Amino acid sequence: MATSTSSSWSQLRQQARSLESQTDSLFHTYSSFVSNPAAKPSEAELQTESQLQEILQKRETVVSSLSRLLDSETTLTSSATKLQNLSLHRSTLTDHRREFVRLKGTISESRSRTHLLSSVRDDINAFRSASRIEEGRSEADYMLDERDRIDNSHNVADSVLSQAYAIQSDFMDQRQLLGNINRRIVHSASQIPGINTIIAKINTRKKRDSVILAGLIAACLLMVLWFR
């Protein structure tokens, strides 16, 4: 019975040490996902995480088996040594469980941080793209406004020119009308007997009056200069 118990203990301890070694190897693989996590857990990450959970569960079963086996022994000396070994396996299992939880949380935080940085980067790019579109739109609106102002200026100039042409046409019509009236007056005057003689006498009298007025003014100036 003692030999059978000792053999079972050795096999369980060997299995526990093997599982601990596999756990260390999986931790090394699992920790590689901390530095550069994907946006979503990859298949390799999920597989490593599943293997760790499975091995930790197996180790829990082995430690429980070692504990039950130790409880069945009666030898104090061997029991004390085995109790120390059992405590070591149980302590290592607890440490590995904490390490697994820590690594899993670190990977999750790193993934969230990477996702946040990616979201901020996408927002910045979207803002820059929207700003470029808005600048292009503003420039296009400015060009359209400028074209509208130029078109309005052309319309005003066309309106002013049209009014000027209309006024010029009215002046030409009035000039032509006055010319026709003048010709009619001259023609009518030529048809009245003696009108030319009367007009010539009027012109002669006007010239004579002008000469008399000029002479009178000259005499007044001479008298003023003389009596000074």
Explain this structure.
This protein is an all-alpha fold and 228 residues long. The chain has 4 helices and no strands. It has helices spanning 2-35, 43-72, 76-191, 195-227. 8% of the residues are buried. The mean pLDDT is 77.
Under the CATH scheme, the architecture of the domain at 1-134 is: Up-down Bundle
* Rg for CA atoms: 61 Å
* Major sheet details: none
Broad shape: rod-shaped
Strand content: under 5%
Mean pLDDT: 77
**Secondary-structure element series:** HHHH
What's the structural blueprint in terms of helices and strands?
Elements: H1 2-35, H2 43-72, H3 76-191, H4 195-227
Spell out the key features of this protein.
Methane Monooxygenase Hydroxylase, Chain G, domain 1; mainly alpha; 228 residues; single chain; 0% strand; rod-shaped
Short summary of the structure?
The chain is mostly helical and 228 residues long.
